[in-house]
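Dear U.,

For the methods section draft, I wanted the exact inputs and outputs in one place so we can describe them consistently. I've listed the two proteins in the order they'll appear in the manuscript figures. Please don't edit the C-alpha cell lines directly; just add comments below if something needs changing.

First protein:
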Amino acid sequence: MKQSRSTSLLKSVVSTAVGFSLSLLLQWLLLPVLIGAPVPLHANLAFAAIMTAVSIARGYALERVFEAMGWRHRLSPFIQAVIAERQAHEAREGFDNAHDDAHRIGELAEAGATYLLHAGTASETVPHTWPWEGEWFKPKGVRRDLVRGCALGIAEGEKFDRDRKRGRGRRAF
C-alpha cells in the first residue's frame, strides 16, 4: 500500500529530529577540537536548525520521488482487501489478539480453509469442516469468501507468531 504524504513527512521529521540532536551534540563536542576555538551555543543552534530544515525538505522530497518511482512493492487489490478484512476483525467485530489467542491451535485456520474451500458455493448446510456454531458461517460470494478465508489464515499465523514469541512452541496442527 502506498505511504501517505503525511506519513512521509512525519517519518522525515522524526528522523531529522534525531539527526538534529546528534548534530548539535557532535558540533558542541568536536568543533572546538577541530577549529581550536569554542563555538558559541547560538551559532551551533543556528547551524543545526538550518541543516535540519534542509534535511526535512530533502527527506520528504526523496520519499515522494521513491514513491513515484514505484520502489515500494505495490499490493494487489485482493491483498489490500485481505489486509483490510483482517484489520476490520478487530475494529468492526472486536476480535482482537486476546480473542484470537483463546481459540485452540488451528481453529482459525480451519475456519479460513472452510471459507476458501467453499467460496461461492450455494450449499444450504454448514460444511462439516466449520469449527464453530453454524450461525457464524456466513458465505457472501466467491471473492468475499476468499478474502475472509485468507484473513482468518493470517489471524492463525499471527497467533502462531505470538505463541512462539512467548516461548510456547507449537507443534503442527
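Second protein (the one for the lower panel):
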Amino acid sequence: MTSFAFSAVQFVETCPSWKQAVRLACQPLEKQGLISQAYAQAIIASTEENGPWYILTPGFAMPHARPEEGVLSHETHLSLLRIRGNVMFEGHDAVGLLILLAAGNGADHLAKIQQLTQWLDEEQRLEKLLAVNNEQALLHAIH
C-alpha cells in the first residue's frame, strides 16, 4: 500500500459554494506559507472561464493552477477537503472530496497526480473517503 502525505486535511458538514470550497481547501496552505492568496483566485478565474475541468470522477475534484500563479514552495503540497453535504459545480455532479494540488514545479505536477490517482484506486479508497461522515473516520480512511 502506498502511503500518502497531505499538508492539510479538513472535514466540514457543508459548504455554500464551489468558490468557497476552493478557498477553504487553500486556507491551510496559505497559513503554512506554501501558497499565496492569488492561488485560490487563479483557480476560481480558470473555473469561471473553462469550467471545472479538474472534476476527475463523480464526487471527486482536484482543483489546481499553474505553479507560477501562487505556489510559494518548491515542493508539491496537497490539501484534502471532505464536504459531507457535497458542493455543486454548475452543470456537473456534486463533489464531496476536493484535493487541492499545489505543485512546486511542472514536472512534479503530473507525477503527483499519477501517484494520487493510484493511491485513491487502492482498496477502493476514493469510495471510502466519499463515504466518511466525520473527521475521525476521515483521518482513519487516510491512514
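Candidate sentences for the figure legend, describing the second protein: The beta strands are 8-12, 55-57, 59-61, 77-87, 95-102. The longest strand covers residues 77-87.

Thanks,
Y.
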